[in-house]
Amino acid sequence: MPDTPRIPAQIALPTHVAGSGRLDRLVDTARGYADHAIAENTRRAYTRDWAAFARWCRLKGADPLPPSPELVGLYVTDLAAPSGTARALSVASIERRLAGLSWGYAQRGMRLDRRDRHIASVLAGIRRRHARPPAQKEAIGPDDLRAMLATLGHDLRGLRDRAMLLVGFAGALRRSELVGLDRAKDDTIDGSGWVEILEAGALVTLRGKTGWREIEIARGSSAATCPVQALERWMDFAKIDVGPLFTAVSRDGCRALDRRLNDRHVARLVQRTALAAGLRPELPEGERRALFAGHSLRAGLATSAEIDERHVQKQLGHASADMTRRYQRSRDRFRFNLTKAAGL
Question: Does residue 186 carry a pLDDT above 60?
C-alpha cells in the first residue's frame, strides 16, 4: 500500500507551465507553508489512521484507492463491533479515524464523501448505540500541584520541570502550546508562540487554530509557587536566550540542549509527579496513572480559580462558556439557583 505523502509533496507547478528559478523557489515556499497547515501531532495521528485503514484493506483483500463509501462504512462498522479479541473503539476515536481517512484521500487528490449514506447512517447508528460521556482527566488543584512540585529536584532538570508545571497550570496551556513556546518572537520556524517577561508577570502570545491570542500569567503570592519566578530561574540557569523555551537537558543535568521537548514530555511529567506525590492513593497505580495527563493542568486552573467565568474562558482560549464548564470538575453546579431566582 502506498504510504501517506506529506502535504508539501502535493504542491507543484501545473504540468503545462515550464519551470524557472523564480517559480521553483515559489513552489518551495508554498510547500513550506503547506507543511505548517496542520499541527505535526495531527499529521502523525492522521498518518497512523491511514496506515491502519490500509492494513485493514489488505487483510480483507480490498484496495483503499479510489475512495469507496461502502468500504469505509464496513471499516467503521468493524471498528465499533470488531470480531475476535480486538477492542472496540470509542465514538470519538472512530470519528478521528474518519478525519484521518479524509485527510489521506485529500493528499492524493481525492475526496471521501463522509455524508454518503453508507458512512453517515452507520456512524449515526454507532453514536446512538455506543456513545458515552467522554472520559475526563483528573483536575490538579493547588494543593496537588504543591505536592507534585515537592517531588522535583533542584538541579537544572528540576528547575525546568517546575517551570513547566507552574506555567502550564497558571496559563492553562495545552501541552503542545507549552512545549511550542520560544524565548522571543520569530526565534524558530516550528514555534507556536513566545514569552515576554514583564514587571507584573509573563505575557504569552500563542498561535491557535483561529488566530493569535495573548495569555497573561501574573506573578504569584509565594516565591515557591510563582510561575513567573520559576520560569525566570529556568531561563537564567539554563541560559535560554533564544530558541525553544523548554529544551532537553544533558544526562548529567548540567546543561540545557538545543532540542525542543515534545508534548509527550508534559504528559509523562504530570503522571510521574502525580504518582510520586501520592495523589489518589486509594486507586491501583495503573488507574492512578490513567487519571492524569497534560489536560489535568488546564482542568485544575479552570476548577480552582474562583473568579468570573469570563476570565477563565479567556485564559483557556475557549469560544464558548459551555466548553469551559467541561473543564470545571468539582465546582458547585448549583451555585446559581434559578429555581429560587424565579420565585419558587
Answer: yes
Closest CA to 145 of 262, 218, 227: 227
The β-bridge partners of 207 are 212
Q: Which of 177-186, 197-206, 281-290, 328-337 has the lowest mean pLDDT?
A: 328-337
CA separation, residue 200 to residues 196, 216, 281 (Å): 11, 9, 38
Which residues lie below 8 Å from residue 31, measured CB to CB, with a gap of 6+? 7, 8, 9, 11
Residue recorded with cell 469507496:
68
* Cα–Cα distance for residue pair 95/77, rounded to 1 Å: 12
pTM over 0.70: no
Contact 46, 99 (CB under 8 A): yes
Contacts of 15 (CB under 8 A, 6+ apart): none
pLDDT category at 64 given cuts 50, 70, 90 is: very high
Which band of pLDDT confidence, cut at 50, 70 and 90, is reported for residue 116? very high
Q: Say what the pLDDT of residue 290 is.
A: 87
Q: Convert 209-271 into a string of H (helix), E (strand) and C (coil).
A: CCEEEEEEEECCCCCCCCHHHHHHHHHHHHCCCCCECCEEECCCCCCEEEEECCHHHHHHHHH
Burial 76-90 (b: 16+ CB within 10 A, else e): beebbeeeeeeeebb
Match 473568579 to its residue by C-alpha cell: 307
